[in-house]
Amino acid sequence: MSDYVISCCSTADLTPAALDARDIKYIYFNYELDGVPYKDDLWQSRTPHDLYDSMLAGASARTSQVGVGEYVEYFTKFLEKGLDVLHVTLSTGISGTYNSAITARDLVLENFPERTVTIVDSLAASSGYGLLMDKAADLRDEGMGIGELAAWIEQHRLNLQHWFFSTDLTFFIKGGRISKTAGLMGSLLRICPVMDVAPDGSLRVVEKIRTKKKAMQRTLQKMQELAKGGAGYAGKIYMCQSVCEDDARQMADLIEEAFPNMSGRVETFPIGAVIGAHTGPGTIAVFFWGAERL
Question: What whole-number distance in Å separates Cα of residue 168 and Cα of residue 170?
Fold first, then answer.
């Protein structure tokens, strides 16, 4: 048994069962609907349809990162058991939670100077962040120590590719990621923006593709260009989706046909509430190991 825990935020967008199976600990982000607070608890207390139906009906959704006090309480419960902590945060290109975790680390180590709390910026998001944690669990189980594992993550995190597209631009417009004019024109022309995560961990629009079918094909092309080993890719592929299960299954079928040597099948997860509050419904994202992000 390892003498440290690996940990992430709920915005890694896996299921509780998937995280528990890999012995990955996690702390919840927060969100509000019309001022009512909720925990981003990986859909244990409500369903994705509850959230998106409320948003489409006009409910105001706001998200907030894990606070310093929440981190202090969370880290302390492991340190009291004599365990060190390797906590990997949601990308600094999306959230300030890394800084909160650093502040909390410094506070708890005043009371536990003999222990180690290491904070690493994932530069990743959603189930791509989850795929990074899954690999970290593999390396921990192989015997890698906390310092070596933290260094490995920092060295390899930009090899984690994120590619996604959306068929509904409503909440990209509301969140300011796409201008209102561009968004309205895009909706009329059935534009599906194809996006990725940049090296600094921020989201960016790469191309604007007309029709969902072409966006799927373009996403698949980017995977073929960038995946480690090309068509011979032998790693895992994760996908997440926001209440567009049929489209996700179609995308998974395309991927599995194009990458016959991949490890298992495409593993698909629901986009979590905090990420989903910004994307809204109709978003599909795929994650895989490949060339370093540029």
Answer: 6
Question: For residue range 243-270, what is the model confidence (pLDDT) as tens digits?
Answer: 999 999 999 999 999 999 999 999 999 9
Range of the domain at 230: 159-289
Dihedral angle sign, alpha carbons of residues 46, 48, 53, 58? positive
* Residue pair 43/270 in contact by the 8 Å Cβ criterion: yes
Cα gap 209→74, rounded to integer Å: 43
Each residue's pLDDT tens digit, 62-79: 999 999 999 999 999 999
> Are residues 276 and 194 part of one domain?
yes
In a domain, 203, yes or no: yes
135 and 185 share one domain: no
Q: Which two tokens stand for residue 62?
A: 């706001």
pTM for the whole thing? Answer: 0.94
Measured distance between the N- and C-terminal CA atoms of the chain, rounded to whole angstroms: 38
Domain count, the chain: 2
Contact 86, 6 (CB under 8 A): yes
Same domain, 176 and 71: no
Integer CA distances (angstroms), 203 to 39, 196, 199, 241, 261, in order: 23, 6, 9, 16, 29
Phi and psi of 97, rounded to 5°?
A: -65, -25
Q: 3-state DSSP call for residue 8?
A: strand
